[in-house]
Each structure stands twice: as C-alpha cells, then as structure tokens.
C-alpha cells in the first residue's frame, strides 16, 4: 500500500487520508458491509483497501478520468482483487445502476455532493449507509469566506450547503466525524 500512497502523493491524487480510511475500514467491518458503491475511484486505493478486508466484499467504483481509471485497473490487478471490484469509466451522472448496496461512498467532485446523494440513495439498501469524504476540505470550511480565493470560496459554499442539506434531511440522520478530511455517515431515520 505504501507504493500507492507514494504514487498518489507524487501525482497529487487526493486519496483518503490515513485516519479517514482506517475509520472507513473499521466501519465496514463493524457493520458487516458487503456490497459497496464508490463514487470517485481515482487510482483505486480506497476500493482496493475495502476489498482487501474480506473476500466476500464486492466494490463497484466509478471514475470519469481516463488516466486514473487506467491506473486503477492496473492496481486492482496488482493486488489480485479483480474478482471483487468492478470499475466503471464514466461520469457518475451517466451511470444507471439497478443493484442495491449496503454502503455508498461519495468521494468525488465536492460541488456535486447533493446531486450524488439524491441520485444514488435509490441504490441504497434499506439499512444501508451513505458515507461522504472531505467535508472539512482541509479545514477550509471553517475559514472566513473573505480569506479564500473565489474558486475555493465557491466550493466551500457548496460543501457547507451539503452539510446543511444533511443536517436538515427528513429521510436521513447524519453523524459527522472529525477524522481524516471530515467524514459523515448517513442512515435512514426509519431504521434507527
Ligand atoms: N476514493 C479515492 C479518491 C477519489 S479522488 C481514494 O480514496 O483512493 C476523487 C475522484 O473522483 C477523482 O479521481 C475524480 O476524477 C473523480 N470524480 C469527480 N467527479 C466525478 C464524477 N462526476 N464521476 C466520476 N468520477 C468523478
Ligand atoms: Mg476524499
């Protein structure tokens, strides 16, 4: 795994942070999660780590960038998890899935989180979880807007609206964890 972590660092690929991924892997084990959908594979790092927990875990993961997709394919082969991971090279908004998943992991374009959530909750099992990464945006969601560049300010605004969307959601209850770059876990209220 150090090889992948090093590659990601050198090529500026935003894979999950160390304690964030540890949290996610533990969560998957603790809740006996078996079928996972991931939005944003990058080079396959988190998908591979989730698959390596247990042979019975299946991951479907979506990546729109061709170069990262190719790298992910190679890594999935290298770690011998081809039988457990399906990777789709497309924009997640073009992908229609009919399967249901125990966990949906949103780790893609920060400006689209509400849209990912609304689209893919239809693929969530009744008792399933939606986990989102990067809610702290490296601490930027807590910085005064006037101290941010216009571009970053826009993204922070979108992330804050996502947090607001989760907090005021009638259907889902969300817990926020200050691990990694900020992780949330949402579950349907009716099953709590
Ligand atoms: N989950 C990975 C990191 C993903 S980084 C890990 O922790 O190892 C986020 C990735 O999401 C990027 O590679 C980006 O290309 C991809 N992405 C962003 N928006 C997307 C979309 N709409 N559909 C598919 N992939 C998307
Ligand atoms: Mg992330």
Summarize the SSE layout with pairings.
Blueprint: H1 2-10, H2 18-30, E1 35-39, H3 45-51, E2 58-63, H4 66-78, E3 85-89, E4 101-106, H5 113-120, E5 124-133, H6 150-167, E6 172-177, E7 183-188
Parallel strand pairs: 1-2, 1-4, 2-3, 4-5
Antiparallel strand pairs: 5-7, 6-7
S-adenosyl-L-homocysteine binds near residues 14, 62, 92 and 112.
Provide a concise account of the structure shown:
The protein has 192 residues and is an alpha/beta fold.
Oligomer category: single chain
**CA radius of gyration:** 16 Å
Give the biggest sheet. 7 strands, mixed
Number of strands: 7
Structural key phrases:
192 residues; 6 helices; binds S-adenosyl-L-homocysteine; single chain; 35% helix
Written overview of the protein:
The longest helix has 18 residues, at 150-167. Strand 2, helix 4 and strand 3 form a beta-alpha-beta unit. The model has no long low-confidence stretch (mean pLDDT 96). The chain has helices at residues 2-10, 18-30, 45-51, 66-78, 113-120, 150-167; strands at residues 35-39, 58-63, 85-89, 101-106, 124-133, 172-177, 183-188. A seven-stranded mixed beta sheet has the order 3-2-1-4-5-7-6, sandwiched between helices. Helices cover 35% and strands 23% of the residues. It contains six helices and seven strands. With 192 residues, the chain is α/β, with parallel strands linked by helices. Bound molecules: S-adenosyl-L-homocysteine and magnesium ion. Magnesium ion is lined by residues 14, 16, 107, 133-134.
């Amino acid at each position: 795994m150090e090889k992948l972590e090093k590659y990601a660092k050198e090529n500026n690929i935003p894979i999950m942070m160390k304690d964030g991924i540890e949290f996610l892997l533990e969560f998957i084990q603790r809740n006996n999660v078996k079928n996972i959908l991931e939005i944003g594979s990058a080079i396959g790092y988190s998908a591979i780590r989730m698959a390596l927990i247990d042979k019975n875990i299946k991951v479907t993961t979506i990546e729109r960038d061709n170069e990262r997709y190719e790298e992910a394919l190679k890594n999935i082969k290298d770690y011998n998890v081809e039988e457990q991971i399906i990777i789709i090279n497309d924009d997640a908004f073009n992908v229609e899935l009919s399967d249901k998943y125990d966990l949906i992991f949103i780790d893609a374009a920060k400006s689209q989180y509400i849209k990912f959530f609304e689209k893919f909750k239809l693929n969530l099992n009744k008792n399933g979880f939606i986990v989102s990464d990067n809610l702290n945006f490296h601490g930027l969601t807590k910085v005064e807007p006037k101290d941010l560049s216009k571009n970053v300010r826009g993204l922070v605004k979108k992330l804050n609206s996502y947090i607001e969307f989760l907090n005021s959601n009638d259907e889902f209850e969300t817990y926020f964890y200050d691990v990694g770059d900020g992780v949330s876990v949402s579950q349907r209220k009716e099953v709590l």
